[in-house]
User: What shape does this take?
Amino acid sequence: MTPPETPPGRHHLGGGRSLGFVVLSVSDTHTEEDDPSGHLACDLMTAGGHRLVRYRLVANSVADVRDALDPYLEDRAVEALITVGGTGVSSRDLTVNALEAMGGRLLPGFGEVYRSTSLAEVGPLATLSRAGLYLVKLKPIFALPGSERAVRTGIERLILPSVQHLVEELER
Assistant: This one.
């Protein structure tokens, strides 16, 4: 007989706090008006009770990603950031490179669980994703792939259930 699952307590999921977040889409093919994945990230986070501080789309370059993220690392209204796109293996997928160049500290569990979750959805291609969670100046930056499916998986299954607790731990 399997014991009943105990729902995680506040310590594991954080309280009911509304966080300020930024969504940065990284793409050479979309515009801010035509960015379904970036808009989906904004919609899912606000539906999850959080506040959108800024949405922006930039080109796939290390300098553009860095320059777009930098102002928010010192902004007290921003408690978490999400990048959408630029996490693949092509020469134009540079989001992860930018986060590493910014001194981002990788928290490997997020990417591991993301790829494991994606494996059930897309099969072995999940292993090609460089999705990850980086800490830059004690701000969490979730780097998600650019597809709508990837954004939905990352936000609904991983970010929303854990981001409040993560931010609380970083503020200690």
